[in-house]
């Protein structure tokens, strides 16, 4: 069955679409959360760097003030200024030692008193700052030296690296913060390194001090964004999963709706996939083609040709049978109209209709439309109404059948003998033909009771002056039996199977 087969085959693609619609909000939301986390970390990193620069500037202010105070004393004998050097160490926060220089040579130190040590001004960043691994007293403790010079005079104040690394550690917390002075840089462990800085791929920021010759670099290691997301966003993630599940559910429901039989059939109708097949009806006496029954086939793009009993019930249920039949009549008219003028007798074209068609007068327009393709008398349109589905006699149906007759349209009761139509019913709707159901025809020569029913139907139709078409004639015996009893028309595989339009036209025109 095409509709259920289609559903089965589409199941895998439905699962894929459902999964995609569930994943889409999760992935999109994940990307947004990722970008948001990245932004937050970048802002945090920048703020950290700004804070570090501010702190270092404040600390260096103390060393700068000490050096400024001492500079005018440079050149005086060490014994005279030694006390002043020590005073600065005591008074100024962060200052661990002070030196006086003459002509780039330290000649007096708060630590050692008189000394003689040549310095290289080029080692100092902008001639001002130098990060050192240690000095003679504490060779393993980092130091930051602030140098001030004027002519031959020079003063230095030295800060303990411990204060600096403390700031790096306290301010940074999860962010890595580094203090860079010239080619040297200090990390939060108080170690001084030389050369390129470590790679900080996340939220990398470098900020220069506006007042002193150093800069601060802050950033995070690889994977920090995900670590941040997993620690900060679990509630948002739960929300995303919820949205994903909802979206998947909605996607699933929408797909189910969009692949419902009626939607699929609506698509097929627009694509003109419902096509007419023609089964010739022959006259009982000469076995000449006197007309044909139009039988619907679904020319499905994937399933191939589909039998009507597999989709007509869906079409009836959804009401699509009405536009489908209209399309079938339209196609039939387009096929036959070009050759209709060659017909010697009016060709009888039977179309199957259902009770639904009789609910309004639209059918009249459809028949009028059909007949307008042909010259008067070249075709005779017959509407087949199955006996199993009786039409309720109402004002509308009476008007409908009256007007149909005025148009010259004939009415046939299909599958006659399987339902329970009364004589009154036959008269009420002005029936022209009875189509004996193929189950009775199949019993010819086999079942005595069925043959009796068949004989009664034939007798009845003669009395009522109705033409009879016998359906499902498959053997010569059946054909002979029916012809012998005066059945006017025969239809069945013995004469021809239902065939596509082109084949029917070729046979009609003798090509
Ligand atoms: P139906 O109106 O009774 O149509 C006759 C069915 O008998 C057709 O089956 C035809 O192919 C089949 N048939 C003809 N000769 C023989 C024969 O010698 N032996 C056997 N075993 N079968 C024979 P089909 O085309 O499969 O149509 C089945 C049913 O679907 C139709 O029964 C009709 O009720 C419905 N149908 C077909 N086309 C339409 C349509 O356009 N509109 C509506 N409402 N129903 C349609
Ligand atoms: Ca029929
Ligand atoms: Ca039938």
UniProtKB/TrEMBL annotation:
It catalyses: 3',3'-c-di-GMP + H2O = 5'-phosphoguanylyl(3'->5')guanosine + H(+). Gene3D superfamilies: EAL domain (3.20.20.450). Its EC number is 3.1.4.52. The keyword Transcription does not apply. SUPFAM superfamilies: EAL domain-like. It is found in: Cell membrane. It is a multi-pass membrane protein. Residues 258-511 form the EAL domain. Keywords: c-di-GMP, Cell membrane, Hydrolase, Membrane, Transmembrane, Transmembrane helix. Pfam families: CSS-motif, EAL. Its main location: membrane. This is cyclic-guanylate-specific phosphodiesterase. It comes from Pseudomonas gregormendelii. The lineage of its organism: Bacteria, Pseudomonadati, Pseudomonadota, Gammaproteobacteria, Pseudomonadales.
């Amino acid at each position: 069955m095409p509709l259920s087969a289609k559903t089965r085959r589409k199941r895998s693609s439905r699962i894929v679409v459902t999964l995609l619609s569930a994943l889409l909000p999760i992935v999109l939301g994940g990307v947004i959360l990722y970008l948001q986390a990245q932004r937050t970390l970048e802002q945090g990193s920048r703020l950290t760097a700004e804070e570090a620069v501010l702190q270092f500037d404040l600390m260096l202010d103390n060393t700068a003030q000490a050096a400024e105070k001492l500079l005018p004393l440079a050149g005086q004998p060490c014994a005279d200024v030694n006390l002043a050097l020590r005073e600065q160490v005591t008074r100024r926060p962060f200052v661990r030692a002070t030196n006086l220089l003459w002509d780039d040579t330290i000649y007096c130190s708060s630590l050692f008193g008189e000394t003689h040590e040549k310095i290289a001004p080029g080692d100092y960043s902008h001639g001002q700052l130098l990060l050192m691994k240690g000095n003679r007293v504490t060779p393993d403790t980092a130091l930051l030296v602030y140098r001030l010079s004027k002519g031959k005079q020079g003063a230095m104040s030295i800060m303990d690296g411990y204060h600096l690394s403390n700031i790096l550690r306290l301010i940074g917390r999860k962010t890595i913060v580094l203090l860079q002075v010239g080619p040297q840089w200090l990390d939060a462990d108080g170690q001084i390194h030389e050369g390129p800085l470590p790679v900080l791929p996340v939220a990398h920021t470098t900020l220069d001090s506006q007042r002193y010759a150093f800069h601060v670099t802050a950033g995070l290691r690889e994977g920090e964004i995900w670590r941040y997301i997993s620690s900060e966003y679990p509630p948002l993630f739960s929300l995303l999963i919820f949205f994903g599940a909802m979206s998947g559910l909605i996607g699933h429901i929408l797909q189910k709706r969009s692949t419902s039989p009626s939607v699929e059939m609506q698509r097929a109708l627009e694509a003109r996939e419902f096509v007419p097949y023609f089964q010739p009806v022959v006259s009982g006496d000469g076995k000449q083609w006197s007309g044909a029954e139009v039988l619907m086939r679904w020319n499905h793009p994937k399933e191939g040709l589909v039998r009507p009993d597999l989709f007509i019930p869906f079409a009836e249920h959804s009401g699509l049978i009405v536009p489908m039949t209209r399309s079938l009549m339209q196609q039939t008219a387009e096929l036959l109209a070009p050759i209709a003028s060659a017909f010697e007798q009016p060709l009888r074209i039977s179309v199957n209709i259902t009770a639904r068609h009789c609910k309004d007068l639209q059918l009249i327009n459809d028949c009028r439309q059909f007949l307008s393709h042909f010259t008067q008398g070249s075709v005779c349109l017959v509407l087949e109404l199955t006996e199993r589905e009786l039409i309720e006699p109402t004002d509308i149906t009476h008007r409908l059948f009256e007007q149909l007759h005025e148009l010259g349209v004939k009415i046939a009761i299909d599958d006659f003998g399987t339902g329970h139509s009364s004589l009154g019913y036959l008269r009420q709707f002005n029936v022209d033909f009875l189509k004996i159901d193929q189950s009775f025809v199949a019993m010819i020569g086999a079942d005595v009771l069925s043959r009796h029913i068949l004989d009664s139907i034939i007798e009845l139709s003669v009395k009522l002056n109705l033409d009879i078409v016998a359906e499902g004639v498959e053997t010569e015996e059946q054909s002979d039996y029916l012809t012998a009893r005066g059945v006017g028309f025969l239809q069945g595989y013995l004469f021809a199977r239902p065939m596509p339009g082109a084949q029917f036209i070729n046979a009609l025109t003798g090509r």
